[in-house]
Amino acid sequence: MEAGETLHGAGYSPQEGETLLRVISDTTNDAIIMMDEEYNVTSWNKTAQTTFNYTPQDILGKNMLDTLIAEQFHQTLIKNLCALRDDETCGIGTPFYIMAFGKDRQEVFCRLNISAIRVGGKVQTVMVIRETIDFKLKQNLTTLRKVTETMSLGLCVTDMNGSILYVNPAMAAIHGYSVKELSGKGVTDVFYALFIVAAQNNFVTKDIELISKRKDKVSVSVVLNSDIVRNDNGEPIAIFMTCQDITSCKKLEVEVCTYKETLQDKIKERSLLLKTNDDLQLEIVRSRQHQEMFDTKIKDLNMLLKEVHHRVKNNLQIINSLLSLQSEKLTDKDMLGMFKDIQNRVRAMALIHEKLYQSACMSELNFYEYIQDLTYELVNSYSDNTYKVELLLEIDIQTIDIDIAIPCGLVINELISNALKYAFQNSKAGKIRIVFYKNADSKYVLMISDDGVGVKNGIDFRNTKSLGLRLVHDLITRKLKGTLDVDTDNGTKYKMVF
């Protein structure tokens, strides 16, 4: 049944019924607005004009959603209208609350009663709007809005169907949105994790930590609190959720835990190092004690070796003196020559012990100084035959081990003595050269040569009658494990490698 037919049935003509409805509409204290199926305004009473400051000329034919209703309440209004229009009998819907804007964009908080009637075969929606808030409460709400817009805590308010009614800038910023992007959105489209967790707890939560997703799909750690807003009758009318971004705190917690673990490791390492240091200090003390003991023993041993060398040298000098005394009673030249050779050998060994006694190192000998002194004494002992003999020393090795020095000294003594006795018998003038160095194979090379008369028919060291030459051969080949070569062209040249 249409509205005109209802009024006609009450005894009014259509014109009278329309006039009656207009009078009733204009005298009521509620704003009464009618709109068609496209949400365009078709009727606008005087209270609506006073409430929203729009004249009928300003508003008639305009879309309600574009002019009056706040964007975040579009879905609330549409859902209620759709539910009412889907009912074949139309009728009256359940009251609900929205926020609208006046002509000067002032906020108007409204309680809506809606009903649907058929006029001319089309469905018209009648909205009875009552401003629900006095001036003082409006001021308080304005203050509260300013607070929510400036606080760092995110806030989101939805209706019971999950449509976002209000979201503050902090909530939008935490999730990478602008406030405008979120107006009228479904909460599950943007804050899915928050809403699901709240729903699992009947929308009453306190300090629940969870991971939410930003617009760019980046995870953000938050603390969620939520509750249900109820009217005076205890009916749920909205859900609010607060959200605090704790991502930086979580990162700091991880850093603190990492630092704490690192610090604990450092403390353990330091404790270990301190213990190791104590052990090392103790070991250093022990090492110093042992070193002092060794130094003392080495000092005592050096003193003992010096004393041994000194006594050996003295004993060899005594032997040399006895030989010298004994030779004075000899008249045979061969015997005298034999005694002289023995004395030279004894002197060569005594000189080594004398040098070692004077040296700071008991195991090595200054070989250049030793050869210089030994050859000087040999030349002096044969001064009658060698006053024009020149000695040339090419010694590249300064020090030598005592185990090599003694056999080398005896070899040099024998070969220099032979050269002084036999090489220059006619001219009594010439050169004797001593060369000593290490070759590329790190072997010692000793060469002793003269430019004297030489040796005829070469030398057979194994069958020679000369004790001195046999001694040279044995010292080089057996004692020093070396080789011995002799060249008798243009004098005599001995080359020994060991």
TrEMBL record:
Transmembrane segments: none annotated. The keyword Nucleotide-binding applies. InterPro entries: HATPase_dom (IPR003594), PAS (IPR000014), PAS_fold (IPR013767), Sig_transdc_His_kin_sub2_dim/P (IPR011495). This is PAS domain S-box protein. It holds the Pfam family HATPase_c. Residues 17-88, 140-185 form the PAS domain. It comes from the Bacteria. Keywords: ATP-binding, Kinase, Nucleotide-binding, Phosphoprotein, Transferase, Two-component regulatory system. The keyword Phosphoprotein applies.
